[in-house]
Structure formats: C-alpha cells, structure tokens
Specification:
Elements: E1 4-8, H1 13-24, E2 28-33, E3 48-51, H2 57-63, E4 70-73, H3 80-85, H4 87-107, E5 112-118, H5 141-158, E6 167-173, E7 175-177, H6 190-199, E8 204-207, E9 213-214, E10 216-218, H7 219-229, E11 238-242, E12 248-249, H8 250-260, E13 270-273, H9 288-294, H10 302-316
Parallel strand pairs: 1-2, 1-4, 2-3, 4-5, 5-6, 6-11, 7-10, 8-13
Antiparallel strand pairs: 9-12
Helix pairs in contact: 1-7, 4-5, 6-8, 6-10
Bound molecules: uridine-diphosphate-N-acetylglucosamine (UD1).
Uridine-diphosphate-N-acetylglucosamine (UD1) binds at residues 78-80, 118-120, 173-176, 187-190, 193, 205-207, 212, 214, 250, 276, 279.
Length: 317
C-alpha cells in the first residue's frame, strides 16, 4: 500500500514541485493550500486538494478526514520583507500554523513529520559554509518564526507523554530555485525575479552593493532530499542543511543571467538601492551532514538549473 503524504503549501513553488515528484514515485498526495501565493494550475490533478489555511482548524478537520501517513509541512509566509511589514501575520502563519499541524499530527497519530525550515534561522552565521551545529541568531523576523516552527516540531518529537512517537525532521533550506518560482512577485526568490526582469526588458534592482552571496539549490535536488528521508530512520529528530554548498554573489547572478539572455550590463539597466532589512551578507551551506546521513548530494549545476528556469520562463511568458 502506498503511503499518503499531506503536503501543506502544495500549490506553491516548493510544495507543488515536491507533490509532483511524490506522485511520480507512487505516493498518494493530499494538499492544503490557501492560494495566497500558490496557484491552482500548480496543483497536481492526481492529488486530493483542499482549499484551506493551516491557521484554520475547520480546514484541518477536512484535511485529516483523509488517512495521512506522512506530513510535509511547507505552508508558510515565505518572505523576509513581509515579515517586517506584518510580523503578526508572519507569526500566526509560521508558528501558529505549525502548532496546528503538530496538534493534528498528534491527534491523528501521524508519526512522520518533515518541516520546511530555513537558512534564515542562522542569521549572521558563525562562519561560512555554515554547519547545522552553528549558532542560530535570526536577524529577520521571518527567520525567527521559521526557527521557532522547527523547534516546536523537533521538541514534540522528543516528547514521551503522548502515547506515540512523532518522528520529526527539519530541513534548513537555502535559496531554492526552479520552475514555478514567481517571475512577477518581488517577495519571492531573486533568481526568478532577475529572470523576469531581464525577460521583460526591465531594469534589474540590486539591494545593497550586490556583493552579498547566497547558496542556490535546485528544487529537484530539494525534492530528492525530502522524499528520500521519509523512511530513513537516521533522519528522525534531525536538522539538515539543504543547499548546493556553493556561494554565488548577487552581482555574479546578474552577470550569469544576462549572459544566458545574450545581454550585458550595457544593454540591460542595473540599479543599486539600499540594502533591505534583515538581509544576510553571506550564506553557504555545509552539506556534509545530509551527504553522510541521508546519502544526499545535489546534482544540478547552477548554470544548468538557471538555464532550465530561463527556458520555462520563456515558455510561460
Ligand atoms: C530567501 C527566501 C526565504 C528563504 C530563504 C532560504 C524569499 C523572499 N526569501 O531569503 O523565504 O527562507 O531564502 O531559502 O524568497 N535581491 C536583490 N534584488 C531583488 C531581489 C533580491 O538584490 O530584486 C537580493 C536580496 O536583497 C538578497 C538576495 O538578493 O540579498 C537574495 O534575496 P531573496 O532571493 O529574496 O532571498 P533571501 O532574502 O536570501
């Protein structure tokens, strides 16, 4: 019997790609999504979809009428900027929503829960590449709530008073990119923002001096890590970085993107503005823990992954 996986946020960029991959591998999938940033067209037709919100217990009642074996909790407010604009909304969704999911997992004795944490949990890292054992001092409100969610999930996994064991895993995802990341939403990832800008012939805006760097990891590599960890006991109770292990500056990203379009800084305008609040300077994952314990390694080279997103962007324009 194939397992049923609940994917919260399954209409969004990360959730929908993972849901597709689960279905391709024979899992049954139930999705809850409030379509705040997700899209109906992203929802796999073989999935059972419930339009709803993880903050709303009536919606979760409907979801848990289905027999769920595994939960992938991915739904959340995924924007550092919005977390500063509306901290209460960010808190309610990312922490309140996660507590709801935990409560339902416990009530329905769903013993496996995988949680979408974030590299923003580290804030200013002790050093790069950052290891899972390094300090967590988030500097964006968003990082605080994602980290809190992670701790709730893992602390519940340690409880012995519930009559059953919740096997929890948290993935601190670095800058995930790939098809379906919004080409128009300025609050989603920078890779697709820049691609959208260049494709439409708009100026590209850099916040800060562009020397800040990020670790971009392709969504298909991320999906492999999540799905591969479902039955892996070594993952129970653990936190893993999911990145590529490689650091690319925003300036480098612009140059690579422009080159892929046959453009350059003379033919496409670039403007530099003040850095955004809570912006981390350098981020790069040490991925040796996932490699060692999950036998996971990212496979997609950044140039290839970027080209794939560009091809998709041109098709969907
Ligand atoms: C991102 C995600 C966050 C996720 C984290 C880890 C967004 C908005 N944030 O944070 O949800 O948890 O990675 O995976 O997706 N930049 C520009 N110009 C732009 C847009 C961005 O210069 O038009 C800069 C930003 O200031 C930042 C860098 O590019 O320095 C990356 O920004 P972004 O892709 O928004 O992600 P993070 O803030 O790193």
């Amino acid at each position: 019997m194939s397992k049923t996986v609940l994917v919260t946020g399954g209409a969004g960029f990360i959730g929908s790609n993972i849901a597709d991959e689960l279905i391709d591998r024979g899992y049954k999938v139930v999705i809850i999504d409030n379509l705040s940033t997700g899209l109906t067209e992203n929802i796999n037709r073989k999935a059972k979809y419930i339009k709803g919100d993880v903050r709303n217990t009536k919606d979760l009642d409907k979801v848990f009428k289905n027999k769920i074996d595994v939960i992938f909790h991915i739904a959340g407010c995924a924007s550092t900027i919005k977390s500063f604009d509306d901290p209460a909304a960010d808190l309610n969704t990312n922490v309140g929503g996660t507590i709801n999911i935990i409560n339902y997992a416990v009530k329905h004795k769903v013993s496996r829960l995988l949680y979408a944490s974030s590299m923003t949990s580290y804030g200013v890292p002790d050093a790069v590449p950052v290891k899972e054992t390094f300090s967590t001092r988030p500097i964006a409100y968003y990082g605080i709530t994602k980290y809190a969610g992670e701790r709730y999930v893992l602390a519940t996994g340690l409880r012995e008073d519930m009559g059953f064991k919740l096997n929890a895993t948290a993935f601190r995802m670095f800058n995930v990119y790939g098809r379906r990341q919004s080409l128009t939403n300025p609050y989603q990832g920078v890779v697709s923002i820049f691609i959208g800008n260049v494709l439409r012939g708009e100026k590209v805006t850099v916040f800060g001096d562009g020397m800040q760097s990020r670790d971009y990891v392709h969504i298909s590599d991320v999906a492999n890590a999540w799905i591969g960890a479902i039955d892996n006991k070594k993952a129970f109770g653990e936190v893993f970085n999911l990145g590529s292990g490689i650091r690319v500056s925003v300036n480098e990203l612009i140059d690579i993107t422009l080159k892929s379009f046959g453009k350059n800084r003379k033919t496409n305008k670039i403007v530099y503005k003040a850095a955004r609040p809570g912006d981390q300077r350098h981020m790069q994952a040490d991925i040796s823990k996932a490699a060692r314990m999950l036998k996971w390694n990212p496979r997609i080279k950044f140039e290839d992954g970027l080209q794939d997103v560009i091809n998709w962007a041109k098709e969907t324009k």
